[in-house]
Amino acid sequence: MSQPQQSRALIIVNTDFCSSDGDVGLRPRRGARREAEKLSCVLAQLSYRVKLLHNRTAKEMEDLYQQECGREHGDYFVSIISSHGEEGAVLGCDCRPLRLTRIFHILSAQNCPVLTERPKVFFIQER
């Protein structure tokens, strides 16, 4: 008898920001790493398979959501992004925006059949 698949959680926390020319773009987000680690522990206690990643570019974040479409999932998918942001977008550590609509499009039933009819819960914290 096979075990049911674990629900998955993807946590991305960006704390340090630079522009493409290497200049410091935005102030560091102190305390965000600690908060994300606490959330990771809580979700693991709830039997989620948690992937916690720090300081990802906008492209790397987009790629992470694309990769979720090829993974096996349990009953739920939880996404937590903690970063600087702007209206309708979160910023990668490269100070480039990733539109939230792009993430939702990647995880749509048409593009990500593995998550069809599975609840997807998103938490976005930006400052």
Automatic annotation (TrEMBL):
It comes from Pavo cristatus. GO terms for molecular function: cysteine-type endopeptidase activity. Belongs to the peptidase C14A family. The lineage of its organism: Eukaryota, Metazoa, Chordata, Craniata, Vertebrata. One of its GO terms (cellular component) is cytoplasm. This is Caspase family p20 domain-containing protein. Residues 5-125 form the Caspase family p20 domain. GO terms for biological process: apoptotic process; positive regulation of neuron apoptotic process; proteolysis.
